[in-house]
Amino acid sequence: MKKILYIVFISGYAISQPAFQGLNAWTESSTIGLAGGGYLLWGQNDFRNAGMLYNSKRKMKFTIVKYPAGINGQSIVGNGTINSHNLGFKINRINYGIFDGRDIENQKTDNYSASDLHLQMGYAKASNSGRFIIGINGGILLSQLEESNASALTLSPAIIYNSGRTDFGFSLQNYGKVINNYGESKESMPIMLVTSISRQITPLPLILEFDHQYSKHNNISFATISGILMFKNGLIIKGGKSYRMKQMTNISFIRNFISDFGIGLEFDIDDIIIDINTYNYSAGGFIIAMGISVLY
Known about the structure:
mainly beta
């Protein structure tokens, strides 16, 4: 189970979570460069806060994420507007790799795999003034471990308040109901409460964001500072730093700064946007992600 433990260290969100880790794994390229933040950064999120569907440019985005230990993730995200209704969909998949099979006597058996597939639809609607935006993502998670399967329905409501140059957001992530468990085990939903503040830093072409995530499952809080720097030629530099609130260490300032740190570059070629991102996590190692978006 060594490979599954890697995903716990990498995402930081699934600590002590027995199953359904794919719900909180990072499968979108910009999320890697923003160190898990960016819930309110326009064009830099996969609508984790569903309110971001409102007024977003229509696009299809394809992402590949490479984790250590043979773990990899993929996602497809799309959005559009139909009769003034802001809609979107997401398909996220995490493949945890191939494992050596062993019986109760530790004799080698057939190898097996493990993966999570999360299918979602999203909707957003703004108030008449445009100040308040409400949104909701709903979907189903299909999880597979060896010959066992588990599934759950997910619901993630969200709200955004726009006060001008500053946006405030709140979302309840992964609320839902377990449909099928792994055998006799009783799995629980990895519910997250996310509070976000995003602000345009004038006169610079810079947007900064602070996110606070609270994991109800294990009573652990996370903080992320992220931002994007935009240039006139279409180049965007992004970065982020994440902190686990209950795991501050006495290591040197430099080492603490460069760990759990993400950075990325994005550039556009006509209606095609390419972004490359990486994240250095404290357990040692890197995540690499690449995304291609097509505007339509």
